[in-house]
Amino acid sequence: MSEQEHKGQQDGPQGPVPGPPPPRLQDQPPAAPWNPAPPPPGAWQSPQGGAQQPPANPWAQPQQGSAWDSPNPYAAAGPGFPQQHGYTPPPKPGIIPLRPLGLGEMMDGAFQACRRNVLAAFGNSLLIQGIITALTVGLGFGMISTLEDAALSGASDDELAGPVLGALTGFVGLGIISLVGVMVVQGLLVVPVARATLNLRTGFSQMWRIARRSILRLAGLALVLLAASAVAVTVLVLLFSLIIYLLGDAGIAVVVIAVLALAAVTAWVSVKLALAPAALVLEGTGIFRSIARSWQLTGRNWWRTFGILILTSMIVGILTQILTIPFSFIIGFAGASTEDPAALVASSVLLIAVTLLVSAVGYAFQGAVTALLYVDLRIRREGFDLALMKDQEGPHTQDPDFLPGRHAVPMSRKAPVGPPMGMP
């Protein structure tokens, strides 16, 4: 049977046999509501309420206008995204940043401390230097007047020995007073400088009130150092005299070499003790404890301390000469052009006043640098910057007699900490 005959038998004589009709729409059961199961935790969900779509290909090329096309791809991230933290500079509440200081920062901080506390810095130095200058001038005029009276009266050498010895004794006493005055000036200047690190201003009477308990100890420190120096000089003079007596001319060469070596030792000891007044006032320590603290702080930092102190002294000396020499010529020329004794006295007094004013400014700046050097060494060795930050946040900064760092506990550091990379 062919394929057509077989197909004809299946379809029938009248055509294809109709199949069962399709089911009607109303006869079908209602469709269940679409309620997809919640996605597992961590699966991607569409942010809108529309149909769920698969996540985009993470390796696809970013579209136009995406974050990669913005001019600043490193802009701050939006809320909820982790932000990148860069270097945060140390705080600077006052004249210096609270970190190890560079030379320029130290010089600028000293100038700012003196500028913000004019009366406390310059007034204190001017007062003490004025007292010392007045005593010096009075003693000098008294000695000259005594010698003139003795010479006019025809006194013998034995009779002149008394006034001369008295004048020399007076000058020795004046030297002691000068040393004590310089020590007091250097110690008192720590108060306005330390307060200026936290942007606290200090008045003249306020400075004396804060440091009143340290004044006698500062004078005692000066006397102790002076007594130690006198004993050392006496012993050395006797020793050198004995060497010259025993060795003759060869002993002179030995003494010269020894004097040069002693000059180096004296400079070394002077630098080691330079911070004792600052430690005495700011830490409230005793005389010998302040000496030990200065010795400790300058350890492993002697050359740096020496260089800063020498540079400061040179700057002050050069500026003093620049300011006083022109006045000396002008006043001297004006006094020489007249024979009036009153004009000569007036020109001399004016020259002394100018010299006194310039010297007071120099002493104030030098003392401020020394105080900041003390603060810097404590920051490098003991974490003093953390103590200052803590004092800044405390409520006691409202106390008019507050002295920063007075009760700070030193924290030992194995190595001196320097400024961040790129910083001076």
From TrEMBL:
Signal keyword on record: no
InterPro entries the record matches: DUF7847
Cross-referenced Pfam families: DUF7847
Keyword Amino-acid biosynthesis among UniProt keywords: no
Record domain DUF7847: where: 248-366
Bias type Low complexity, positions: 43-65
UniProt KW keywords: Membrane, Transmembrane, Transmembrane helix
Annotated region described as Disordered, given as residue ranges: 1-93
Compositionally biased spans, kind Pro residues: 15-42
Transmembrane segments: 125-144, 164-194, 215-246, 252-282, 303-336, 342-375
Protein name: Glycerophosphoryl diester phosphodiesterase membrane domain-containing protein
Species assigned in the record: Arthrobacter zhangbolii
